[in-house]
Specification:
about 90 residues, mainly beta, 1 helix, globular
């Protein structure tokens, strides 16, 4: 859930599930998205925060970061902080 609409240079809080978005040739997760509870998906920009989220696939998280609107309505977040707030979601 996005708490507020903020200027591009202001961090926002998003709450949602970490889901796989890309895999390597051996089937290991290499990139993730956050599926927020307002039904918005956020691509996670590569960096230290994305490495932390790789450990939290299928978990509910809160993420504070900076969002960019890309083409075709795609949103990308640069993670500042993240934390797990729920148990793993079994599929």
């Amino acid at each position: 859930m996005v708490e507020d609409v903020a200027p591009a240079n202001e961090p926002i809080l998003i709450r949602g599930l970490v889901i796989p978005a890309g895999w390597d040739e051996k089937g290991r997760v290499k990139s993730v998205k956050i599926s927020a509870f307002d039904e918005t998906d956020y691509e996670v920009e590569n960096g230290a925060g994305s490495r932390d989220l790789l450990k939290l696939v299928r978990r509910e998280v809160e993420v504070v970061g900076w969002v960019d609107d890309l083409t075709d309505g795609v949103k990308r977040i640069r993670v500042g902080k993240c934390r797990s707030v729920g148990a793993e979601v079994k599929v």
